[in-house]
């Protein structure tokens, strides 16, 4: 199995995809320019098949043929091709339901699978291109801050590679099945579901690719987030870092209303955030804004902001994406301690500047 993407792998994949004919141009898919974001790595291959909205329905069989072509390559265990409509047709940045020009026949799976869980009004995903930028810190604090605004809030920790919700929310127990559905746990007035509840600490590293995707799908579909009498106002989804299978599964299966992108100010983190943003734009998921984490450290003597990781980058990036900066969260030791102690900083009345910034972001999202 190849662990890293090589140009030889990519070339082989492109050749295989050129054997699948684009019905509109009569050319191979690669030659027709329909292969976007091709990834061939770790036994997996996938790309986005980007087509004009008005012909999306005709491409469902093409998508399947492309998946078969990739799956037939030596060393490929899983192939995933996502059908999206191109920006030129003016359908990006809309609700996912509109992604395929409102034509459910174009969905690769039955349309009911592409619906949000029952009794959930809004779904917001928190994404980052890179690990360790504070995505879980942001997700937990936003969820608790939204609950503080009087909303009925759920937190889905979909970071199967390193679930943080049990530690950061201070809960760990076996969720119970009641009437065939998993009951989320509750902490700080937020309903929480995490793969970390179901597997031992450290074990999530074994959840790879397809297994991870199906675990996430189960957490999306089999959890009783709300009831008719008490629907969930908003489900905050803590995505794993990056832009892999799990993100595609979520974007495919869950009607995400919008994404919040978390980044630190450094250029490298921003480049990764840009990659994440590009993926969500391709799948027509609106980007609600950027949260710049670790934006600065306040000088203990004077309070003056010290831009440890640089400054201004996230603002420029948000401007380029045409979205607001929802918050600039300072580096505070208390933020980390609060997370480590299972009570996000916004649970404290005197939480300081970071807690205030999280609350302001929650208000902006509301
Ligand atoms: N603003 C902040 N000030 C101080 N510490 C922070 C801040 N934000 C995050 N941290 C700390 O940085 C570490 C990484 O944060 P976190 O786990 O939220 O990142 P992540 O992006 O979810 O990581 P991964 O994707 O690898 O799970 C944690 O120890 C967290 O407490």
TrEMBL record:
Quaternary structure, from the entry: Homodimer.
Job of this protein: Binds and transfers iron-sulfur (Fe-S) clusters to target apoproteins. Can hydrolyze ATP.
Family: Belongs to the Mrp/NBP35 ATP-binding proteins family.
Keyword list, A-Z: ATP-binding, Hydrolase, Iron, Iron-sulfur, Metal-binding, Nucleotide-binding
CDD domains given in the database record: Mrp_NBP35 (cd02037)
The keyword Iron appears for this protein: yes
Protein name: Iron-sulfur cluster carrier protein
């Amino acid at each position: 199995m190849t662990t890293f993407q090589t140009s030889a792998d990519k070339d082989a994949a492109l050749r295989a995809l050129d054997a699948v004919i684009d019905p509109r141009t009569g050319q191979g898919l690669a030659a027709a320019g329909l292969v976007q974001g091709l990834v061939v790595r770790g036994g997996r291959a996938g790309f986005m098949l980007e087509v004009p909205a008005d012909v999306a329905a005709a491409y469902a069989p093409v998508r399947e043929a492309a998946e078969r072509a990739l799956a037939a390559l030596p060393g490929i265990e899983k192939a995933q091709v996502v059908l999206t409509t191109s920006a030129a047709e003016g359908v990006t940045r809309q609700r996912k339901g509109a992604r395929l020009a409102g034509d459910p026949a174009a969905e690769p799976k039955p349309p009911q699978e592409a619906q949000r869980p029952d009794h959930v009004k809004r779904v917001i995903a928190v994404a980052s291109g890179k690990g360790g930028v504070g995505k879980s810190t942001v997700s937990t604090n936003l969820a608790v801050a939204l609950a503080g605004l009087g909303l009925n809030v759920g937190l889905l920790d979909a970071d199967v590679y390193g679930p943080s919700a049990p530690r950061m929310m201070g809960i760990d127990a076996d969720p119970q099945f009641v009437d065939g559905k998993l009951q989320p746990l509750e902490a700080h007035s937020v309903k929480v579901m995490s793969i970390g509840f179901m597997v031992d600490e450290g074990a999530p590293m074994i959840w790879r690719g397809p297994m991870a995707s199906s675990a996430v799908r189960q957490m999306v579909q089999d959890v009783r987030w709300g009831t008719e009498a008490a629907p969930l106002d908003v489900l905050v989804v803590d995505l794993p870092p990056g832009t892999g299978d799990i993100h595609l599964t979520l974007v495919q299966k869950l009607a995400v209303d919008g994404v919040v992108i978390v980044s630190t100010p450094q250029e490298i983190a921003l480049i990764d955030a840009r990659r994440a943003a590009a993926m969500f734009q391709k799948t027509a998921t609106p980007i609600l804004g950027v949260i710049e984490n670790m934006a600065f450290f306040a000088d203990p003597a004077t309070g003056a902001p010290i831009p440890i990781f640089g400054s201004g980058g996230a603002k420029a990036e948000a401007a380029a994406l045409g979205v607001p900066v929802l918050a600039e969260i300072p580096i505070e030791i208390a933020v980390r301690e609060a997370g480590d102690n299972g009570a996000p900083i916004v649970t404290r009345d005197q939480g300081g500047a970071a807690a205030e910034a999280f609350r302001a972001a929650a208000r902006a999202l509301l």
